[in-house]
């Protein structure tokens, strides 16, 4: 019997080391076998000291591992931080928590999702006795159920060759088909799109919220016959690159790529950009517990890795001390540079967390109806 038990233990450990099961699965299997003590603290301790960060794949996987995972491991001997690029959608987080099989510790999310999932008791509150609130931007970047170690913006990008007399300077110009003819590009998502529509309607950006959803949807409908819609960042680039759209609302990281590769033909502007918090959340019941809180704290407290992420990915730092460390040549493309942040609007994640589901459903109906 003991030999059979050891064989089962060895099989579970091999599966864990090959990545076929997570640490919670390993510990559950060992516990069922009554075998945790048999490991002498080796694999079980390793499993208990591993943190899993989840992102959306691509180069972000490398960036978060290099600039956030590696420094934390260096400062905490025996802790392993691994990257999972499965894609931490709200649905996947919900499924994991409700099934009681949580294997993720920190998930790349958004302010609106953190608000929505938090209200549904699917997330762990940020412990601000560990995560120092003053290390992040003061408004909209330190929330009850998440905090932001990076930022990004939705900006107005345009093909300057189409407008020799001068390009658009506001969302009102974006909606002005007479002065600026041509196809518009918007994301197939209400978030940030309705905010731009509200500014196009003339509401003061300093007092943008709450949005008038009905009025914003009517504004969106004005462009329905002159608009195309993107689903991914790469797709947003392609619409402008090929000339299928003459201007669009896209992420600043994508606009930076287009501006560089087109030698300035495709430009973008910061005024009335929607500055957004790159929020990380912790699923309720995550195996890392306090250790996950400490990893999040280190991501916020250290400005140097945030500047490194800007260099690699174009995402803006959120620690106020980082601004002075950004090389001069990168400041033009940094959303949280004081000069750029000053003319933008911080997207209200709390408002969107309460209104996103219905507003987005109505938005999709508007553009497809």
UniProtKB/TrEMBL annotation:
SUPFAM superfamilies: Periplasmic binding protein-like II. InterPro entries: SBP (IPR006059). Pfam families: SBP_bac_8. Keywords: Signal. The keyword Signal applies. This is ABC transporter substrate-binding protein. It comes from Roseomonas nitratireducens.
């Amino acid at each position: 019997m003991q030999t059979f038990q050891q064989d089962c233990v060895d099989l579970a450990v091999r599966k864990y080391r090959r990545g076929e099961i997570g640490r919670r699965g390993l510990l559950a299997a060992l516990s069922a076998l009554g075998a945790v003590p048999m490991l002498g603290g080796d694999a079980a301790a390793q499993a208990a000291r591993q943190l899993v960060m989840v992102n959306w794949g691509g180069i972000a996987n490398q960036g978060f591992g290099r600039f956030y995972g590696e420094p934390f491991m260096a400062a905490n001997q025996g802790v392993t931080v691994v990257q999972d690029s499965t894609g931490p959608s709200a649905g996947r987080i919900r499924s994991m928590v409700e099934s009681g099989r949580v294997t993720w510790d920190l998930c790349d999310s958004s302010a609106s999702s953190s608000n929505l999932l938090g209200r549904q008791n699917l997330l762990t509150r940020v412990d601000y006795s560990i995560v120092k609130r003053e290390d992040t931007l003061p408004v909209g970047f330190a929330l009850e159920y998440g905090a932001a170690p990076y930022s990004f913006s939705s900006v107005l990008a345009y093909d300057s060759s189409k407008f020799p007399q001068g390009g658009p300077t506001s969302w009102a110009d974006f909606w002005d088909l007479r002065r600026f003819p041509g196809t518009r590009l918007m994301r197939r998502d209400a978030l940030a799109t309705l905010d731009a529509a509200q500014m196009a309607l003339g509401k003061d950006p300093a007092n943008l919220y709450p949005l008038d959803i009905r009025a914003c949807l009517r504004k969106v409908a004005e462009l329905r016959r002159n608009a195309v819609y993107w689903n991914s960042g790469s797709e947003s680039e392609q619409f402008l690159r090929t000339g299928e759209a003459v201007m669009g609302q896209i992420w600043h990281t994508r606009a930076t790529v287009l501006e560089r590769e087109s030698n300035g033909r495709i430009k973008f502007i910061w005024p009335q950009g929607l500055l957004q918090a790159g929020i990380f959340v912790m699923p309720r019941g995550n195996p890392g517990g306090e250790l996950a809180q400490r990893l999040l704290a280190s991501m916020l407290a250290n400005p140097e890795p945030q500047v490194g992420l800007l260099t690699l990915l174009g995402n803006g730092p959120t620690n106020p001390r980082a601004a002075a460390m950004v090389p001069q040549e990168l400041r033009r493309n940094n959303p949280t540079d004081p000069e750029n942040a000053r003319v933008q609007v911080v997207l209200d994640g709390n408002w969107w967390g309460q209104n996103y589901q219905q507003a987005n459903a109505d938005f999709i109906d508007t553009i497809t109806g």
